[in-house]
Amino acid sequence: MDPQLSKIATTLREIPFPTRFAVETNADCNLECSMCHHPSMRRPKGKMPFALWKKCADEIAIMGPETNCWFSFCGEPLLEPGLLMRCLDYGKSVGLKSLNVNTNGVLLEPELADPLMDTGLDLIVIGIDGFTKEVYEKVRVKGDRDAVYRNVEHLLERRHARREGPEIQVQFIEMDENEHEMDTFREYWLERGATVKLRNKLSWGGKFDTPVEVSFEDRIPCPWALTMMHVFWDGRVPRCPGDTEGDEGVGNAWDEPLTVLWNKLGHYRQKHLDHRFDELPTRCQECRDWMTGAAERIKPPGGSIVESSSDVEVRS
Ligand code: SF4
Ligand code: SF4
Fold first, then answer.
1. Residue 193 C-alpha to ligand 1 middle, in angstroms?
2. Rounded distance, CA 315 to CA 295, Å?
């Protein structure tokens, strides 16, 4: 079996509350990335009422303040910067320990750098995927390479000037279109103090091909299903991140506590843990995301640690 997947499998067990929680503060996006399902997403788009995040955050603070809360699922959170910062502020005020933002960086304009860091967020991941304008804009369709590079460089400079701040990761999803730029991308950003995150392309519930090749005979329980819960902007909770339309949702966070919704997902988790994969919904038969969760993070000189994560990272 693939050694990285074996390592991930050893970490998976039934848990009473998710260790990762994705919050879709906004379901719109300003880009149409080539590797993302968002451009073809059919469900209604909107922004999350603050009261819904407050309800979730209050429960997470009691049930698992260490939970990694990710502000992003299907959409760009910086289309609503005021809402995002209010949510981050509130999360910190109730004692949440890990508040993370995943953004494409186009709207991470210089004047937002300090207010964003003032919230006390712990980590920001900027999905970039290319070094040259040509490759970047082929993958990050409708994006502006030079604006993103300028925005991230400014954020790094401000963090340096403040002498504290969130971890700043620049993400590179490895694909045929961009793999020849990976080394240049890594060197460029490490020199400027960012952590470089290299990750596999996801299949988004089987909608896309991925370059990862692992035999289905070596299948492991899906790390996303075992560890992570997602809430759409309107409160609906999908079965898993592959269920991007919420076709197999289990309820709504407005109506029920997160623990109840997590427990409703428990029979799926048990099937994964028992390796009864053929009893899972059809989507799980085609989805390859159980094999694409791992990511590698390379820290800049000074920290100079190279890590290969043994569990899943949020997607963008
Ligand atoms: S990857 Fe992110 S930025 Fe790109 S289209 Fe999807 S949601 Fe939007
Ligand atoms: S393998 Fe199944 S549980 Fe995991 S993301 Fe894909 S559809 Fe969801």
1. 24
2. 10
pTM value is 0.93
Q: Cα(312)–Cα(222) distance, rounded to whole angstroms?
A: 10
pLDDT in tens, 150-199: 999 999 999 999 999 999 999 999 888 999 999 999 999 999 999 999 98
Q: Are 87 and 25 in contact (CB under 8 A)?
A: yes
CATH number, domain containing residue 176: 3.20.20.70
Ligand 2 centroid vs 310 CA: distance in angstroms? 18
Residue 315 is predicted with a pLDDT of 55
134 or 217: which carries more pLDDT confidence?
A: 134
Cβ(293)–Cβ(311) below 8 Å: yes
Question: What are the φ and ψ backbone dihedral angles of 140, each rounded to 5 degrees?
Answer: -95, 75
Distance 48 CA to ligand 1 centre (A): 18
Considering every ligand atom shown, identify the ligand nearest to the alpha carbon of residue 103 and give its number. Answer: 1
Q: What are phi and psi for residue 167, nearest 5 degrees?
A: -65, 135
Q: In this structure, are residues 295 and 313 in contact, taking their beta carbons and an 8 Å threshold?
A: yes
Look at residue 316 and tell me if it is in a domain.
no
Q: Which sign does the torsion angle of CA 242, 247, 248, 249 carry?
A: positive
C-beta of residue 69 within 8 angstroms of C-beta of residue 60: yes
Which residues form the domain of 185? 3-308
Confidence of residue 3 (pLDDT cuts 50, 70, 90): confident
Report the number of distinct structural domains present in the chain. Answer: 1
Provide the pairing of β-strand 20-23 with 228-231.
Answer: parallel
